[in-house]
């Protein structure tokens, strides 16, 4: 075991003994409730106003749409006041302004101009939800051109209410420019900023806790020295054999030298995946797909990613021990997991995040050939529950090869819950959303995935039993 692995294992061990304060102890080194983080300074009211949760309109865009609506209603009301101030019969006045329209005497065209802006802007920015300034720039330019022409064409000496009518023209001019400025300087920048940096989260009973942790992630990462940083590789997790070379040709692939932007990308992806995996864990719309002894597999349909699977069971081991094996023992995964041919820890990003590489065995009687997977993993403890999320990722040293079809893992991971009053027993939850990039009937693929989940759980329990027996 390397010194780095020893420190990481000590970090997990410290959770079981509150009297030991390890540098990796979350309750001391990066409490989600007490320690301020960099993200606390990044997230502001402007950033929150630009986020779009669950496909709903952002607050700043909704305000823009209300502003456009106010533009039309305000101009209409002002025009109506101008008509009423003439002292004529309302029907006769409206008939002169609308039915007998004349550009020199009627101001109804300004109302139509405001209505046209309202229809165009609402359609493009509320219905189509575009994020570009081109439409409003054209709308504002045409509005201004018409208003300037109206000033020259209108017969001002014969106007009965020149002050109100001047204010009507100026009001339309100012509001059209105000809409353009607000969209270009507020809506687009805030939404762009939110899409880059804000992690959307659904409201739930425990969501504020996990969200606080995610927002604190940047504060717990070790700063890189200089422009590049290469984490130390674990010898037992090293890749042997080039993806493009014969399997019997030994080769050691060193971790890639990551730039600061690459590190930040992996850390941000880990934070987003953690939130998404925890949200899946909390959902209550899972449907039982199959039961085998004390193991249950559930499914849920997602319109964006397809079918997601969840396995639940109980394992007679402490939560700490189980998470220790699942995260730190990834290099030995192929030794006890009959579904995995090879497994490697490729690169450590930080104390809680790494990149792994696995090659699966053939499945479905050879119908599904071996796939290789490059995964980003991240673990933490939230409210006493061990959470390890996982998602597909790219790595500079692991491009797709001709030897294996590249499989893709969607948001998933392991959740290990302690059972009250039973220190040597835990509830194990496994969530997966695989894409094997294969064209076979979906019902066959789903059946094989469920079968594989039962096999994995059986292998895991046998491995844990043997490992705990060795320790004893």
UniProtKB/TrEMBL annotation:
Broad class of where this protein is predominantly found: membrane
One MF term in the entry's GO annotations: lipid binding
Membrane-protein topology: Multi-pass membrane protein
Listed PROSITE patterns: MENTAL, START
Ranges of residues in domain START: 286-469
Alphabetized InterPro entries for the sequence: MENTAL, StAR-like, STARD3, START-like_dom_sf, START_lipid-bd_dom
A single GO cellular-component term on record: endoplasmic reticulum membrane
Ranges where the MENTAL domain occurs: 57-230
GO BP, sorted A to Z: vesicle tethering to endoplasmic reticulum
Keyword Phosphoprotein: no
UniProt entry keywords in alphabetical sequence: Membrane, Transmembrane, Transmembrane helix
Cellular compartments annotated: Membrane
TM region positions: 63-86, 106-126, 133-154, 166-183
Protein name: StAR-related lipid transfer protein 3
Source organism of this protein record: Ceutorhynchus assimilis (cabbage seed weevil)
Species lineage: Eukaryota, Metazoa, Ecdysozoa, Arthropoda, Hexapoda
């Amino acid at each position: 075991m390397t010194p780095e692995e020893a420190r990481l294992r000590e970090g997990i061990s410290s959770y079981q003994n509150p009297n030991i304060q390890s540098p990796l102890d979350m309750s001391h080194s990066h409490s989600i409730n007490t320690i301020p983080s960099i993200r606390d300074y990044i997230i502001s009211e402007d950033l929150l106003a630009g986020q779009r949760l669950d496909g709903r309109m952002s607050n700043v865009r909704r305000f823009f749409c209300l502003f456009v609506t106010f533009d039309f209603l305000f101009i209409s009301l002002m025009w109506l006041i101008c008509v009423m101030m003439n002292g004529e019969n309302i029907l006769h006045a409206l008939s002169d302004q609308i039915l007998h329209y004349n550009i020199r005497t009627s101001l109804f065209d300004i109302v139509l101009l405001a209505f046209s802006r309202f229809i165009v802007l609402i359609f493009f920015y509320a219905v189509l939800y575009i994020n570009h300034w081109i439409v409003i720039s054209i709308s504002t330019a045409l509005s201004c051109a018409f208003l300037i022409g109206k000033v020259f064409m209108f017969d001002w000496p014969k106007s009965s209410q020149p002050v109100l009518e001047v204010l009507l023209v100026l009001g339309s001019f100012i509001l059209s420019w105000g809409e353009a400025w607000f969209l270009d300087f507020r809506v687009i920048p805030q939404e762009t900023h939110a899409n880059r940096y804000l992690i959307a989260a659904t409201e739930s009973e425990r969501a504020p806790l996990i969200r606080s942790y995610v927002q604190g992630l940047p504060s717990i990462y070790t700063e890189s020295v200089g422009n590049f940083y290469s984490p130390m590789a674990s010898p037992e997790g090293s890749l042997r054999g080039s993806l493009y070379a014969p399997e019997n040709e030994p080769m050691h692939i060193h971790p890639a030298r990551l730039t600061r932007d690459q590190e930040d990308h992996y850390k941000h992806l880990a934070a987003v995946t953690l939130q998404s995996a925890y949200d899946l864990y909390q959902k209550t719309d899972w449907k039982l797909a199959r039961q085998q002894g004390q193991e249950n597999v559930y499914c849920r349909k997602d319109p964006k990613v397809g079918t997601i699977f969840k396995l639940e069971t109980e394992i007679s081991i402490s939560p700490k021990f189980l998470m220790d094996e699942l995260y730190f023992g990834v290099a030995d995964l192929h030794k006890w997991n009959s579904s995995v041919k090879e497994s490697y820890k490729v690169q450590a990003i930080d104390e809680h995040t790494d990149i792994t590489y696995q090659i699966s065995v053939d499945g479905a009687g050879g119908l599904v050939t071996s796939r290789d997977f490059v995964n980003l993993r991240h673990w933490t403890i939230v409210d006493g529950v061990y959470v390890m999320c996982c998602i597909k990722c790219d790595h500079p040293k692991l491009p797709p090869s001709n030897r294996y079809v590249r499989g893709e893992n969607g948001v998933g991971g392991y959740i290990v819950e302690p059972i009250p009053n039973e220190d040597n027993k835990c509830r194990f939850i496994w969530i997966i959303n695989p894409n094997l990039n294969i064209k076979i009937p979906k019902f066959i693929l789903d059946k094989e995935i469920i079968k594989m989940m039962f096999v994995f759980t059986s292998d895991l329990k046998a491995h844990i039993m043997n490992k705990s027996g060795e320790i004893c």
